[in-house]
Amino acid sequence: MKESHFPQFSLERQLPSCDLERELLADLETYIIHKSSEILGVEPRSCQENYEFTITDHTGTEKLKAVKDFDISHFPNSTSEVILDVESYQPRRLAIKLRFSELLGLTFERSYLDFDNTIL
User: Which domain does 103 fall in, by range?
Assistant: First the structure.
């Protein structure tokens, strides 16, 4: 995990192997975007603009704007990591990252900082 100058909460937990359904990821994506917009007090489309869906498999890493942009109906068996990530600096700094990883299991990271340096 890279070093951050902002207060941060992080949770890592090893999970047994499981199937990640596209519908579950789309639901999590919607939740993260709407929760971010609620926290920041902005419209969801503003957070959608700062959202990224990343998938890593044996062919490499692909970064997309949404789960729906992944044009394969099933994730390849070689999928090693899936990341849902939103980061915004307006009107305050907020970062939320949800990572499903073959090596790390489930990782959740959140950092939030008001520009008057108030930690919320």
Answer: 8-13+20-113
Quick one: 45 exposed, middle or buried, by C-beta within 10 A (0-12, 13-18, 19+)?
A: exposed
Pairing state between β 60-64 and 81-88: unpaired
pLDDT of residue 98: 92
pLDDT at position 60 over 90:
yes
| pLDDT tens digits along 104-113 | 888 888 888 7
- The pLDDT assigned to 89 comes to 81
- Return d(Cα 94, Cα 112) in angstroms, integer: 4
Which residue matches tokens 């007090």? 41
119 occurs within a structural domain: no
- Residue 101 main-chain phi, psi, to 5 deg: -130, 140
Concatenating the DSSP letter of every residue in 43-85 gives -HHHHHTTEEEEEEETTEEEEESSGGG--SSS--TT--EEEEE
Q: Which two tokens stand for residue 22?
A: 């596209």
